Amino acid sequence: MALHKHAVQLASDDSVDSILKHTLDAVEFALGFDHADFTMVEDGWLRTKTYRGIKLDYPDMKLNGPGVIVKAANLKKTLRVSDTRKEKAYFKAKAGLLSQLAVPILTNNETAGVISVESTRLNAFTMDDAELLETLSNHVASAIVRMRREEDLQRYVSLHQATLESTGDGVLVVDKNGTVVTFNRLFIEMWHIPNRLLSAKNHTELLEFVLDQLEYPEQFRAKVEKLYSNPEEKSFDVFTFRDGRAFERYSQPQRLGDEIIGRVWSFRDVTEGRRAEARLRLSEERYHSLFDRMLDGIYLSTHEGRFIDVNSAFVAMFRYSSKQEMLEIPDIKKELYFSPEERGSHVLDTGKEEVEVYRMRRKDGSEIWVEDHGRYVHDEDGNVILHEGILRDVTERKQMEEAVHRRAEELDSLQKTLLEITARHELPALLNRIVERAAELLGAPAGGLYLCDLNRQEVRCVVAYNTKINTVGRVLKYGEGAAGVVAQTGKPLVIDDYREWKDRAAVFEQDQPFGAVLSAPLIWQDQVLGVIHLLRYDTKRFTQEDLELLTLFANHASIAIENGRFSENLERMVAERTAKLTEIQNQLLRAERLAAIGETAAMVGHDLRNPLQAISTATYVLRKNIPNASERAREMFQAIENSVEYSDRIVEDLLEYAQDLSLDLTQTNPKSLVRDALLQLKVPENVGISDLTSDAPMITVDVGKIRRIIINLVENAFDAMPKGGKLEISDNMSGNNLEIKFKDTGIGIPEDIMQRLWKPLITTKPKGIGLGLAICKSITEAHGGSISVESKAGVGATFTLKLPIEPGREGVKNT
Fold first, then answer.
1. Residue 276 CA to its chain's centroid (Å)
2. How many CB atoms sit inside 10 A of residue 138's CB?
3. What is the mean pLDDT of residues 114-125?
4. Residue 257: left (phi > 0), alpha (psi -120 to 50), or beta?
5. What's the longest Cα–Cα distance across the chain?
6. 451 - beta bridge partners?
7. What is the DSSP letter of 755?
8. C-alpha dihedral, 469 to 475 to 480 to 483, nearest 10°
9. How far apart are CA 815 and CA 811, in angstroms?
10. What DSSP assignment string belongs to 219-259?
11. DSSP characters for 555-599?
């Protein structure tokens, strides 16, 4: 509470005396002391600014002289003296002070002053006291920095443009009416201000342009409006751009004498600092991050049938509106299963994880097939306390398996039929068998086979099957009736209701009219030999799948009619159909492979999250409790932290590769994309980078995902130049596409690796699992672009990233 009150108080202090007074108040309240003083560094001296408690005759001290305070200032670290009589550096006094605690005030890693407390008791100050005083020192340092910034801003306003250009911050000055007075070039570069706004100097339009670039524009707008409604108020906050950059914003009123005439805005790039904070939060929240970002559904539930916790993927899988809605389900077995009996048949209390595949019900009543990796959790007495597990949606895989099985049966039946009909030598029997089998395959109650007389332009029915009307001998002209149209065009035909054809051609006169009609031509050497004509009495329609099957059947039958045997062409057609089946099977295998990767990610995340968190926490505690660790120990701590971070990146790669890509599109330019990516990298000392990209044209992409591609390609270039080299990054237009090239002088890529470079789980590096380039390819193709490489071993490599300028415009084909 004292620390918080101190921080709040210092945020509003406007003088050094005020800061010193409130700091000593906080020290006295939190620690207690017999003597305390506050010294500041000035021109190589430590000069006492104020003191409290026992009065001492300390003179000003040289920074190269004796004294614990001087030593703390020079070492830039806290000194805790348990017995001043044994401390050579202690500045002798006659007040009987036996212990001392001195903490430096550091601003920009330089000592600005020292807070010192002393006591007449031995060993009066603990490590906790030192940490508390260090926190107070940080508050004072922040207040000093803030006051110095205020003084700087005041000088900027008074000196106007010349002075503004010399600062390291972006500065904007407006009058009390909101009209822009002046700004420096760094402000223009930070916000990418276009020329039309530079000349107009319209603050309202400028503000709208700024808001469009921010991640949370409405929050920024509200703070600006609040400041203009409170002219006296100062403001300091941090905000982020949509492209990931972060800035500190400081605003204060501009005065002329006692009158407020405007406001000064100062912006400082703190992107790297924010990224460091983000990495720390990621380390501390790894468990929750993995839980919520899993692509598969994760659940915890009671034995009685209520959810304890679920992740976002689980909520989306069952189409509920929120996690809370699922947690309020009173009985899982009644809500998520088609019958309560199904629930008990799938989860077995074996004491270990079980994998089951079964169907469940979404909120909207639709069916979903899931693969459940679940288990019971018991207490020490063996009683079930909860269920936990991971659910994967395998509905599509289940449907593909059924489709493959169904097609396999159809092909097998078709091949047997063709073998039967081609074994016959008499044409009438052959034709009858063709029509009979076609009707049986497609469930049509009536059918006929019409042969075409190409000389007389007639279509004559030679076989009728299972129909109340004897159509044998019926003659149609080309273009008359469905069979006549197919004979004329040589193309298959589907009619949902044959009665609608009355105005085009004759329909059979009968008591029960036909419903759907399906016709396919028999073609041999580009000529129509005949037509298979199938009809239904019911209202059930023929499907596109039926049409494809009958067309294939007609192709096979035409060969059988012409040759009377199983020809090589027929074998080729069957082989083509078999190849299509093989492709479906390959698609299933690829789907299963992706599912396997997703499962691996889920299991790795599940199994590693607790030990990784434990390792990270233990390392932090060891660092904290061994402040004076040896250099070797610090290296070991760093190695542990690097290994934990590397393990986490492996899980992240698996998750990203397995998930469905969704794009958050914004406008940017090549220069901004490459610059922001390079800011996140540590460039080796022996590698030179030439960034030749331009700030035009504007391109619409998912900035975060394209930045990921650039980082990956640049890091690969670093790895390819272990002895140093050069990396050149350039861009150019190619039609409606932007090309960004990455050309290195590294060791190149061997020919055998080039052939499988973009496949997942392929790598030549000693570390990593080979998903980097596969992820890059997936992201690029999701944008409608392509990525390619040219390389020669020992010479270097050039990667080309090609992206369409705008979504929806014709872009490149995948390379």
1. 19
2. 15
3. 90
4. left
5. 134
6. 460, 530
7. T
8. 70
9. 12
10. HHHHHHHHHHHSTT--EEEEEEBTTS-EEEEEEEEEEETTE
11. HHHHHHHHHSS--HHHHHHHHHHHHHHHHHHHHHHHHHHHHHHHH
Residue type, 813: K
For residue 265, which of 373, 153, 353, 345 has the smallest C-alpha distance?
153
pLDDT in tens, 501-553: 654 444 444 445 667 888 888 887 677 878 888 888 776 778 887 888 888 77
Within 10 A of 129 (CB to CB), how many other CB atoms are there? 20
Maximum mean pLDDT: which of 454-468, 606-620, 758-772: 454-468
- The 3-class secondary structure across 470-486, one letter per residue, is CCCCCEEECCCHHHHHH
Pairing of strands 699-701, 666-668: antiparallel
- The set of residues, in sequence order, having a beta carbon less than 8 Å from that of 696 and lying 6+ positions away, is 669, 670
Q: Give, for 130, the enclosing helix (H) or strand (E).
A: helix 127-159
For position 68, what pLDDT does the model report?
Answer: 87
Distance CA 710, CA 718 (A): 12
The structure tokens listed for 187 are 């402000």
Contact 667, 699 (CB under 8 A): yes
pLDDT in tens, 450-483: 877 766 678 888 778 776 666 777 788 887 888 8
Residues 44-56: tens digit of each pLDDT: 888 888 888 888 7
Cis peptide before 697 (omega within 30 of 0): yes
Q: Where are any strands of DSSP class E within 150-234?
A: 170-175, 180-183
User: Are the beta carbons of 133 and 1 closer than 8 angstroms?
Assistant: no
740 contacts 674 by C-beta, under 8 angstroms: yes
